[in-house]
Amino acid sequence: MTSTALLYLTVIALLITVAASDTPATGYTNHTVGGPAGWFFDAKNNISATSYSSWAGNQTFNLGDYLIFNTNTNQTVIQTYNETTFNSCTADDASDDDTFQYNGGSNEFGQKATIAVPLTMMGSNYFFSDAEDGVQCQQGMAFEISVKRGLGLPPSLNQPPPPPYIEPPGPDTAQPPPITINGGSPALDNGVSRTVANVCFPLTALLMAIASVWM
Ligand SMILES: *[C@@H]1O[C@H](CO)[C@@H](O)[C@H](O)[C@H]1NC(C)=O
Ligand SMILES: *[C@@H]1O[C@H](CO)[C@@H](O)[C@H](O)[C@H]1NC(C)=O
Ligand SMILES: *[C@@H]1O[C@H](CO)[C@@H](O)[C@H](O)[C@H]1NC(C)=O
Ligand SMILES: *[C@@H]1O[C@H](CO)[C@@H](O)[C@H](O)[C@H]1NC(C)=O
Ligand SMILES: *[C@@H]1O[C@H](CO)[C@@H](O)[C@H](O)[C@H]1NC(C)=O
After folding, report:
1. Which of 45, 130, 132, 139 to mutate to test the pocket of ligand 2 (most atoms within 8 A of CB)?
2. Ligand nearest to the CA of 119
3. For residue 17, which phi and psi values (nearest 5 degrees)?
4. Is residue 99 within 8 Å of residue 91, measured between CB atoms?
């Protein structure tokens, strides 16, 4: 076999591997953050329980997937779409529009918590723990993921707020507002024309009745 043919086969093999690893999503995945290590800070050694960025780098995240944080209340879970907030390791100055804090429902230290965070926005999503004034984040409790479309959001997560009410265009909307002429008396005018109509109607009916008798 020539070296050219060998190179050719190697390239084909590589292409197949790339294609196989890029298979489209067939369902929604729950990703347990940190794997068996969970979402913990090792206070004794002043470092995160595992490398969350390498954990995150090893998998594909799609819309509708969940991140499952197995943790306790000594850590926090902050999700942000704002890179500045992420890099600052604090949510103090963050906007409610792009940053969300999930808590385990307890204010006490060391309470077991399982926090499920749905992925609902494509692109960069950032997660960190802001506990201990940002030290946990600075010491490894922070990671970025890139969320792909996958199958798109499932109906359970795909409930945008209803669009704002807009009055449908009607015949009235295009017309200028009615003009009231000072001194006039529209009520009287209407009353007069109604009176005329009321008189005219029986007269017309009578004429038609007479006509029908004659024909
Ligand atoms: C994934 O997590 C969500 C939220 O906790 C849960 O509702 C769903 O059943 C889980 N799905 C699977 C396949 O475990
Ligand atoms: C842990 O690391 C941070 C950041 O490097 C440092 O500021 C802090 O003093 C350390 N804490 C302990 C207990 O060593
Ligand atoms: C990445 O994922 C593969 C396949 O699931 C696994 O064998 C490997 O140990 C993982 N690597 C890391 C660093 O987690
Ligand atoms: C990110 O957050 C910071 C601090 O709240 C804010 O000043 C900045 O405008 C935000 N960036 C974007 C792109 O929204
Ligand atoms: C949680 O933090 C508190 C206060 O720093 C500490 O006393 C406690 O041992 C921690 N608990 C766990 C389970 O890490």
Report:
1. 139
2. 1
3. -60, -45
4. yes
Q: DSSP letter at 77?
A: E
pLDDT at 210: 46
Cα–Cα distance between 200 and 24 in angstroms, integer? 79
pLDDT tens digit sequence for 117-176: 999 999 999 999 999 999 999 999 999 999 999 999 999 998 765 666 776 666 655 555
Residues flanking ligand 5, CB < 6 Å: 72, 74, 109-110
In three-state secondary structure terms, 128 is strand
Q: Residue with the nearest Cα to atom 9 of ligand 1?
A: 30
User: What is the pTM (predicted TM-score) of this model?
Assistant: 0.71
Q: What is the DSSP string of 78-124?
A: EEES-HHHHHHT--TT--TTTEEEE--S--STT-EEEEEEE--S-EE
Q: Give the H or E element holding residue 49.
A: none
Q: Poorest-confidence range of 25-29, 54-58, 181-185, 196-200? A: 196-200
